[in-house]
Amino acid sequence: MLLQSYPHLRTRDRAVIETALKGYNDRIELPAGRVQSEFIANAARFDEIGLFSSRYNAAISHDIAPNNDVIIGFQIREVSEVALDGQLIESRADNAGCLIPGSRAWRVRNPNGFMVLLVRVATATLQRKLSALLGADCGQLDLRQPSSAGVHRTMLRDAATGFARELDVVDPRFLPSLVAGSTEEICIGMLTCLSEQYLEAERSTAAPSVIQLGRVEQYIVANYAKPLTVETLAEISGASGRSVFRHFRSRYDRTPHQYLERIRLDMAYVKLLTCRDQSSVASVALDCGFRSLHHFEQAYRNQFGKGPVPLLSDRPRPRRR
């Protein structure tokens, strides 16, 4: 069960379930009208994104009311049947997820119970980021269902479940960076894989100028400890976010966020030169903008072939005379 650090509900009382889910569910249907298993739910809510993990070990169906958020659900166990505007979408534990656009009512049937992770993203957040990617107002957001084929099949699932797992163990000092980084990763993943407007625009992308790209590179180096958003890339460059993404892949074989991580790792290496004990490693990771100590240690090991050990601690200290 994900999000253990964010308990929301644990009950066998149907009235409590319906009250707790008010605003999300119009109706809950149970066999014989009674609860047969314990309903368990955990929820982590932030300004622009929220995660909801729930489990029920018997048959149950929900009618979900329209809301202002885009939802993408990942079945962890069993199979759910989702009906959106009368069209059935099978949600399995091995597929790329099921997307529910905002302002659309839907119904989900779980004949054998379920375990699911739902990610809610504010529609306004996705629209703002899409406009930055396209370099123009995107109008109404138009998202397609995730495809079970292609290189991006598991990208969103991995990003969402990874975020949920990190939330359970993250040092509270890293929480703002973790939320900001994961929100950006999930939003950009949804838009570049699922947005009809973005996929159409990708067919013809104007290249930014050398000056525009120089501004982005200078900004990243000067502000490496800050979160990097696609809105910032568009504002700094004066070009569309997607053109900046394309340039970085062409020139550096990495995205702007991967370029930023390399800068952060280089700066962390330099800072570790002045560290005297292992307890200061977390401070270095925090100062360099990493979203968790675990992520920093893994990225550092991948880059340098060893963990982030304070270098001064390995040096022989001069003897006192």
In a nutshell, what does this entry contain?
With 321 residues, this protein is α+β, with helices and mostly antiparallel strands. Helix content is 40%, strand content 21%.
What's the number of extended β-strand segments?
11
Spatial arrangement of strands, main beta sheet: 1-3-4-11-6-9
Q: Which outline best applies?
A: globular
Kindly report the name of the CATH homologous superfamily of the domain at 7-123: Jelly Rolls
Write up what this structure looks like.
The protein has 321 residues and is α+β, with helices and mostly antiparallel strands. Among the domains are: 7-123, Jelly Rolls, CATH 2.60.120; 205-253; 268-314. It is 40% helix and 21% strand. It contains eleven helices and eleven strands. The strands form two sheets. The protein has a six-stranded antiparallel beta sheet with strand order 1-3-4-11-6-9, with helices on both faces. Strands 2-5-10-7-8 form a five-stranded antiparallel beta sheet, with no helix packed on it. A hairpin with a 3-residue loop joins strand 3 and strand 4 (49-56).
Sequence-ordered SSE layout with sheet pairings:
Elements: E1 7-11, H1 14-20, E2 25-29, E3 39-45, E4 49-56, E5 60-64, E6 69-77, E7 80-84, E8 87-91, E9 98-100, E10 106-110, E11 114-122, H2 123-134, H3 155-169, H4 175-194, H5 196-201, H6 210-222, H7 230-237, H8 241-252, H9 256-272, H10 281-287, H11 293-304
Antiparallel strand pairs: 1-3, 2-5, 3-4, 4-11, 5-10, 6-9, 6-11, 7-8, 7-10
